[in-house]
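Exercise 7.
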Amino acid sequence: MTTQLFSLDATFEDLQAMKRANVASMDPNLDMRETSPLFNATVVNSLETVQMLATMKYLIDLVYADTAPREYLIRRAAERGLKPYEATKAKLKGEFNIDVPIYSRFSLDELNYVVIEKITIGQFILECETPGASGNMFLGPIVPIEYINNLQWARLTAVLIPGEDEEETETFRQRYFNSFESQEFGGNRADYKGKVGKMEGVGGVRVYRAKYGPGTVGLTIIDAQYRKPTQLLIDKVQELVDPLNLQGEGVGTAPIDHVVTVSGVNGTTINVTLNITYQSGYSWPDIETSVLTIIDTYFRELAEQWAKSVTYEEDHSGVIVRISQIETRLLALPGIVDIVDTQLNGDTLNIELDMEAIPKRGVVSG
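Solution. The predicted structure, written as tokens, is:
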């Protein structure tokens, strides 16, 4: 009888055929008809074998990073000192008719917020008590949880530092594989990207050597919502990396002698002119909202692409706003038969943005 190795992907039918062939090779006169004892034995044994192979395949998948589920991916990545970024709490600007007490609490919808810092008279920073991106969703009137004397009105007016959800599995998986391309060490490009990228509210960073002269490093950041960051976020990152009053002294995460300046990504306004052939019964007002949503989604994807740059070449190239992408996405909308001669900022050419810029929707006309 010949010993055979089974593929982990072998099917029940494959296994049964091989086992029957092995038995027949021992004695071709053995009864292998259906319902015969030997036939039934190969059926039962093949079922057990296919279950065993499936279990082995599952166990093997657990230990390789490209197939491991989240729990085992985290254990694998821990060998390289990596772990998923934890959820962070959103910080928002609150405006009041009076100065409210620090640590006073307010509610809006299902979320609660706590006052943590004063900006100026009647303006404070509030932190959402619930970690994650849900803290970025709501602006408007807020209600005190406990009575505050002389308070007449209170509202949230802006997201200052976006909250982030726990890092998604596939994003973490890609970061794990990226770690093999470049090692974080001593203020190299990967070191800056790793340390700044995991700071609260930061969605990505690009690194530029000697941006402001010899010995300087320029960091351009984007916020966790892939938008131009607020000055508050820029200032906080600057303080953590290389405080302005002690630049180059190695007080922050930057190595000594690195004079680091943090700035925010710029938004380049893109006006879009569409030449649409409408389906009967449709006109621009019928599709305008959907068109704007599609363009906003595309521009956000480009901003996310900007944020996820890894290499030197990617840091020094700009994202490209492509007419074909806009037209293809819009052609899927009900009411649009055709689109031709789309213009971006008055020209029928794609636009490659500056390496420190992301697209910002301007006027869209159809």
